Amino acid sequence: MDGALTPEPTAGVSAQSFREMFSGVAAPVSIVTAECDGRFHATTVTAFCSLSIDPPLMLVALARTSDMLGFVDRSRRFAVNILAAGQEQTALACAQKGTEKLSVVPWVERWGLPWFEASAGWLGCEVQDLLDGGDHVIVVGLVVDCEITTRTPLLYHGRDFHIPQAIAAPAVGA
Ligand SMILES: Cc1cc2nc3c(=O)[nH]c(=O)nc-3n(C[C@H](O)[C@H](O)[C@H](O)COP(=O)(O)O)c2cc1C
């Protein structure tokens, strides 16, 4: 086998290499929303995926420094808004720190939580588990309600937002 294709195993990679590596992985952009003590909160994430069909589980990884983690831990429920093309400004607003970010983006309530109506998809989840994930916490959510639309999803790749041209929207119900 060509040695050039079999790099030496390494004990680890630098944070820079790790970031560089994952900046090249296209990921859908979502916003987690939650409520605690009458206060709503929203945080932009890409570390989100399905986990299990039976039972229906998903996971989202939240930084230990994320204020959202406290909301999810205390309230034990959250929603995930899978963003669509055109929601770039909403994604940027909810990637800020602070308590005022929901005042600069339009939303309505769904399942008692902030919902960005123009999203491509939506999940309502109950917290099943919080697991160690290094400097993040893996939030395992039991999906109790969900909806997908035919809107084109918003992707993040190369540290920028992209709208996929070649993805045909799935037929709802197919
Ligand atoms: C495109 C994008 C993806 C992000 N993905 C994540 C993620 O998966 N998990 C996470 O904890 N933070 C992620 N962030 C960073 C948070 O949105 C950001 O740190 C935010 O200020 C946290 O807010 P909070 O402390 O109010 O929860 C992402 C930011 C952007 C712009």
What does this structure look like?
- The structure is a single chain.
- With 174 residues, this protein is mainly beta.
- It has helices at 15-23, 67-75, 88-93, and strands spanning 27-28, 30-36, 39-45, 48-52, 57-63, 77-82, 108-110, 113-115, 121-133, 136-148, 155-157, 160-162.
- The longest helix is centred in the first third of the chain and has 9 residues, at 15-23.
- The radius of gyration is 17 Å and the shape is globular.
- The chain starts with 14 loop residues before the first helix and ends in a 12-residue tail after the last strand.
Which keywords apply here?
single chain, 174 residues, mainly beta, 3-stranded antiparallel beta sheet, 3 helices, 12 strands, binds flavin mononucleotide
